[in-house]
Structures are given as C-alpha cells and as structure tokens.
Amino acid sequence: MPTKLTPEILTAALLGFEEQLHRIDLKIAEIKAKLGGSSKPAVAASLPARRKRRNLSVAARARIAEAQRRRWASFRGESKPQAPAAAEAPKTKPRLSPAGRRAIIAATKKRWALKRQEAAKAAKAKAVKAKAAAASRKSAVRKAPAVKAAKKTVPPKPPSAAQSAAPEIAPATEA
What we know:
Blueprint: H1 7-36, H2 42-46, H3 58-76, H4 98-142, H5 161-164
C-alpha cells in the first residue's frame, strides 16, 4: 500500500539525501587528496552550513502579514489598508411569479400524463404480444405428431458354458 507523501516526509528525505551527498563529497575529496597529494578537502569548504527551518505560529504570521500590508499602504500613499467593502447589500435572488409557477406546474402535469399514457400503451402492447405468443405455443403443442412406440430389442443371450470355454488354438506352423 503506497504511503501519501506529505511535505514532512519529503523534507526528511531531502535532508537525508543531502547528508549522503555530503558524505560522498568528503570521500571523493579524500581520494583526490591521495591522488593529487593535497591534504585539504576542497569540497567540504564549499558546502554551505545547513540552517534549521523556523516554525512560526499562526499569530506571528498574521502580525507579519499585517505589517507588510501597512508598508504597502504607506508606499501607495494610503492612510489605512482598505477593508473589504461590506456596505453594499447583497443582491436578492429573483423570485418566481405565481403565474409562472402555475405555468410550470401545468406543463409538468401534462408531461407526466403523457408519460403515463405511453407506459399504458406499452404495457397493453406487451400483454397482447404475450397472449399471442401463448396462443401460438398452445397450437404448436396440439399439432405435435404422436411418437411411435419404440421397437422391442431382445437382449443377447449370455454365453453358455460350452461356448465360454476357450477355443482351441491350432499350433503355429513354421514356413
């Protein structure tokens, strides 16, 4: 079952791989030092020091965001950051007139009546077909020819004692 890759898992994987990369770079530097005669690992100095990631609380992020809004407001020359305009009244939903409602109800009733009529016609036609099929099956049964009696077969007689003895085999002659 595959696990869901969360940002925490991916961050931990990234840190692990970076650590492996650091170790491999150190080993490469040691080998190069042995080959070239230099004793300093040049790669180790070039790697930046890892910084621990800071976790900010929700309140701290809100304070930072508000301060940034104030800075932008002063940059644009505004005295205060604009709050969302709540002065406008929300638009009312259009209402259906009583005459429109009656027209919709009448159309719906007409549509359902037509649907019921079609269903009744289909059921009647199905009943007629079933009745005709049953009648044709009855007539087919009456017209079936009579089956002739099967011929009696006489079972073969069991072999008698004289016949059951092994027949004599003539001696084979050599040619």
